[in-house]
Amino acid sequence: MLDMRAYELMVIFDDDVADAAIQGHLKSLISETVEADGGSVATVDNWGKRRFAYRINHKWEGTYVVLEILLPEGKDLSTQSRALRLADDVVRHKIIRLPESEATRRGLLGAEATA
What is the distance between the terminal CA atoms of the chain, rounded to a whole angstrom? Predict the structure, then answer.
């Protein structure tokens, strides 16, 4: 059995991007590459449009999306991070590796450990 690691990825999309385009970006930039590495996207939480604390790229708002991702041990999100850095519609992104206790509390690793 493969040991899995849990990650949390927050992506802020440009305010001008439509919801359908955001879903397309999430599928092409993240979901397909994660699944190719043997992982899965556990949850996708679209927070909607939020106001920035300060102006970024001459904009005051962006669309926030938070994903919880499971990857086999030894794999990471470097490919996805590079794709997000290069994407024109992405304002910012942040990847956090969740500690095992937090991932278990969220129910991400508990099902994997007992399966």
Answer: 9
Distance (Å, whole) CA 34 – CA 82: 13
- Which one is the CATH code of 4-108: 3.30.70.60, 3.40.720.10, 1.25.10.10, 3.40.190.10? 3.30.70.60
Q: Is 27 helix (H, G, I), strand (E, B) or coil?
A: helix
Q: Which two tokens stand for residue 20?
A: 């359908």
Chain centre distance of CA 61: 19
Closest CA to 47 of 61, 59, 31, 63: 63
DSSP 8-state class, residue 109 = S
How far apart are the C-alpha atoms of 49 and 2, rounded to whole Å? 37
pTM: 0.86
pLDDT tens figures, 63-77: 999 999 999 988 888
